[in-house]
Backbone:
């Protein structure tokens, strides 16, 4: 059961001028489910992406990097679920290439103008023939208003489609930012998540795109974790179709640049949080904020230690204020010279720990009250510097075990 | 249900000359359970310990370090369950000191000659008065043959007591090594585990003890993980009572030193593996071996990434050969220049992955056969150097969630 998350309303998802989407059922792994998404971009779109840091990166991730580096102008994205095409060696790369070539033929493009994405089971052979056979239906369905279908078409163990949209005014023109993402498990993105796509019709210097996509990932997908497992296929792509008609954005620090950046961040953050809200077996949405670190990096170490601890996560699932587990996680996070005698811990507004020990006024009933909520903020103050960091996560429930014990059956 | 583990037979646990043990029910947290252990050492025993690297180390760990550093000659160990006395600030240290002083009075010792150990819930106030009230019964019960009772007396969520014993001949004399440990959850020892005690009557230069206890920890407790949560209270203590009557061991590299070392390692390893076999909710015992690394450190990174992955652990629970999850864990382990195209993966005798892709001869039925076993060896070969490392772990089951969601209730 997702935590305070509903399927997006179709009307809330604004089309992005210059982007058309087609979805089909290709039977990649199972019949009768939307598992193939084609996204076609008008000529002139700027595209940038960030990809998994997993050294066992999937074949499509390798091809995405190669095709972006070729700088032929990306014109299409091809996404399949049901098979991750990871752990498949050289054969997997060859198969991903065949699917790009097939879509390129349909659209009159070069195969290097197609970015491929796969998600699903690892170490299975990609059924190229099924994907190729599904392409005509996807291409025939191409239309600008298919964002909701595309969000459905990239789901695996997700229980709800994830999509978000914002509009801002830049240079007197309405600029749209719309995106989709999928997640659910093997989620501890490192650079990006298991498939996120955000498109805007903003007019922006393509040289700024890589910075913008990195910053957006860093504010969103790189701040979430469900199980600490960094996927082999994480990919986050930002598209700017340059169609909105305003004067080009040439600096992200300008007023227009800042407006676009905020809209891209907001959409990315909403998508990232939606992934956590729909995390496998999640019953609670947890914000972990660590203040008072010397560096952002050490704040992240502590925040991720809390967010990954199975003991902390099962305590949240049980609504049990067994909060010493949070202190233990901070203690083993890897901050070598940490002084436990300085640490404060808050659960929402409840001050639980002061100077490393239980706060004299802390009552278990207060902790219990917060732990029963479906949205909880854990705040730790290290009191050793000015840096802070935030991570979003969920609890660890029986359903997580069930889902991952049954995933392939 | 522990994995291929039974309670040790009383007769299998040889007494160690110079060590007497008394166990009592002090009602620290719950009534009618053995929760207080006193271990008294004859004068002249050499004692060394290694303790948690968790920066939120418990009050008793702080006192152990202080009392060992004082070099007054350790004569007694005082162990309670039901309360970890961690996350308790300066008050926790004062309370641990009061318990040491009380036992010292009973035995005519200085409080610095007592080492305190606590295990149980974090961030609760230590009930000193109950522990002090329980001491007379424990002291009255002191006897050399109470190793099994002491193993029972340090259990928390353990389902079985853990104890092991070996005898070796050194200089024509029988030398005994006997030890106890407890574990179950919050287990990813870093220097030592959540309470392990090994005693021998060997005659050994006290200057060698710290090296020996470190090496033993490194071969045993530091190679196991259940949930990746490094405890606040991990403590592993080695005692040599110097009573066996052989010529003193002055070098660990001598024949006598090697014989003692092997016996201490064997007892430590058996105790460490017993902790994994009785891991919270464990249904399988998994050995993860990584070969072919450039350094032992990178082999450990990969082995721990596999051993900590919730996705890998739930796949073991389900007996599902979803082995791509193992590749993904190796990929995110943090070996920056890893070449996935070199990697081999074996499940027991089954060659699953060759050069980063599925082995052509691999059949899912073969993977399935191994996954159904209760003891499984995962072997990864990185093919980039001569180093190797082994870690022992267990699977992640529904019972792990249940146990940790219910632990305090």
Residues:
């Amino acid at each position: 059961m997702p935590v305070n998350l509903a399927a997006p309303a179709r009307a809330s998802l604004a089309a992005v001028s210059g982007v058309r989407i087609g979805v089909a059922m290709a039977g990649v792994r199972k019949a009768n489910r939307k598992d193939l998404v084609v996204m076609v971009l008008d000529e002139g779109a700027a595209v940038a992406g960030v990809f998994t840091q997993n050294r066992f990166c999937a074949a499509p991730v390798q091809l995405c990097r190669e095709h972006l580096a070729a700088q032929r102008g990306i014109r299409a994205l091809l996404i399949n679920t049901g098979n991750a095409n990871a752990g498949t060696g050289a054969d997997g790369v060859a198969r991903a290439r065949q699917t790009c070539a097939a879509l390129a033929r349909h659209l009159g493009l070069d195969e290097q103008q197609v970015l491929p994405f796969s998600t699903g089971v690892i170490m299975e052979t990609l059924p190229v023939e099924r994907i190729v056979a599904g392409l005509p239906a996807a291409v025939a369905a191409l239309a600008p208003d298919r964002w909701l279908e595309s969000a459905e078409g990239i789901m695996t163990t997700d229980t709800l489609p994830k999509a978000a949209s914002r509009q801002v005014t830049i240079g007197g023109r309405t600029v749209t930012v719309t995106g989709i993402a999928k997640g659910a498990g093997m989620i501890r993105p490192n650079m990006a998540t298991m498939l996120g796509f955000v498109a805007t019709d903003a007019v922006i210097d393509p040289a700024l795109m890589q910075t913008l996509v990195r910053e957006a990932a860093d504010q969103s997908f790189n701040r979430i974790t469900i199980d600490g497992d960094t996927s082999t296929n994480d990919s986050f792509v930002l598209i700017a179709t340059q169609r909105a008609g305003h004067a080009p954005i040439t600096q992200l620090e300008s007023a227009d640049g800042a407006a676009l950046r905020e809209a891209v961040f907001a959409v990315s953050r909403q998508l990232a949080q939606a992934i956590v809200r729909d995390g496998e077996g999640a019953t609670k949405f947890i914000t972990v904020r660590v203040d008072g670190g010397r560096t952002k990096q050490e704040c992240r170490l502590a925040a991720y230690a809390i967010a990954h601890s199975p003991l902390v996560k099962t305590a949240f699932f049980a609504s049990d204020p067994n909060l010493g587990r949070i202190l233990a996680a901070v203690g083993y996070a890897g901050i070598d010279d940490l002084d436990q005698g300085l640490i404060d811990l808050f659960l929402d507004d409840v001050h639980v720990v002061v100077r490393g020990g239980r706060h004299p006024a802390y009552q278990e009933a207060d902790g219990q009250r917060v732990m029963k909520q479906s949205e909880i903020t854990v705040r730790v103050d290290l009191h050793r510097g000015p840096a802070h960091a935030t991570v979003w996560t969920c609890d660890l429930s029986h359903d997580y075990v069930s889902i991952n014990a049954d995933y392939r059956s």
